[in-house]
Specification:
311 residues; 3 domains; four-stranded mixed sheet; three-stranded antiparallel sheet; 15 helices; 12 strands; elongated
């Protein structure tokens, strides 16, 4: 492979060893640097211009610097971030970390990495589990796993399989429960919060989740549906904060009403800040639609009371 092919495949980034293998001599590399045709990124790694680097070029430079290496953690998932995380084999010695690069030593690098992609990176399942395990809050951990599934890059069953294959996992039981919920249809932090804090915690009937529905806006999926009479939509900002998105939501709600369904839309604050009151109100709506619901308090300070359910 010649120099131009290597640079094209690696977004303009090349390692010294690759340049020598392609036929350049040391003095050729020095000349390219002196003429500002190439610029040094890290020791033994160059880019074919002198301007700012894109995130992809920074990622290539980090992987080539630590090679054999693969992107890991957030760097393998998002394609953004000020720090580039790369993984090397655990039996490698200590490597100096250039500015903006963090090096992690992994036992299963060879089997977890996708070496054929550019730049090499951990499989989505392994990277997502690593980030979720390191997340400070449960909210952040759920977000990572839900986003990985919602982006269609992986599925909850594949994440479960990867989790079960690991010997040591921080908060394994909890992560497994989250993935089981995702497999059953919760697709976001907000949906998972509703399932656990509102529906399960207060003994509400179990919803049918991600039900396919055809409306004037095309095919959509209902977040939670009860007895084909009540639809609960969980409105995270990501997909509902534009005028066109709100218009589509309103049209779907109108179509649901035509079919005899009432739609209730809940936000983060209703689910996470006041789940007990929200559960009580949802229960009252259910009863008015002829849906059998008993309900229960979730703790000593719970605001879900029998009095609030009175017709």
């Amino acid at each position: 492979m010649d120099i131009d092919d290597v640079l094209r495949l690696q977004s303009g980034v090349i390692a010294r060893r690759q340049a020598l293998e392609a036929g350049l001599q040391s003095h050729d590399i020095r000349r390219l640097l002196r003429r500002n045709e190439w610029a040094r990124v890290h020791d033994g790694v160059y880019v074919d211009h002198t301007g700012p680097l894109t995130w992809l070029q920074r990622a290539w430079a980090a992987v080539l610097y630590a090679a054999p290496a693969a992107l890991c953690l957030e760097s393998a998932l998002t394609g953004e971030g000020a720090v580039i995380h790369v993984a090397v084999s655990r039996d490698r010695g200590v490597l100096a970390e250039p500015p903006g690069v963090r090096i992690h030593h992994l036992t299963h690098l060879q089997e977890w990495a996708l070496w054929h992609v550019g730049p090499p990176r951990l499989r989505v399942e392994e990277a997502a589990l690593d980030v979720a395990c390191q997340a400070i809050s449960e909210f952040d951990a759920i977000a990572v796993l839900a986003d990985a599934c919602q982006s269609r890059r992986t599925t909850a069953p594949r994440l479960l399989q990867a989790l079960d294959a690991r010997q040591r996992v921080r908060r394994r039981r909890w992560l497994r429960a989250v993935l089981v919920d995702l497999a059953e249809g919760t697709c976001s932090v907000l949906e998972h919060g509703y399932l656990n804090r509102v529906e399960r915690a207060h003994g509400l009937p179990r919803a049918a989740r991600q039900m396919r529905s055809t409306s004037s806006e095309g095919v959509t999926y209902r977040d939670a549906e009860y007895a084909q009479r009540l639809v609960v939509e969980l409105d995270g900002l990501l997909f509902h904060n534009t005028a066109s998105a709100r218009n589509r939501d309103a049209e779907r709600d109108l179509d649901a009403a035509v079919d005899g369904r009432t739609t209730v839309r809940l936000s983060y604050r209703q689910v996470f800040d006041r789940p007990c009151r929200t559960a009580a109100k949802i229960a009252r709506v259910m009863r008015r639609h002829g849906i059998s619901v008993n309900g229960r308090v979730c703790g000593p300070d719970c605001e879900f009371t029998r009095a609030e359910l009175a017709a």
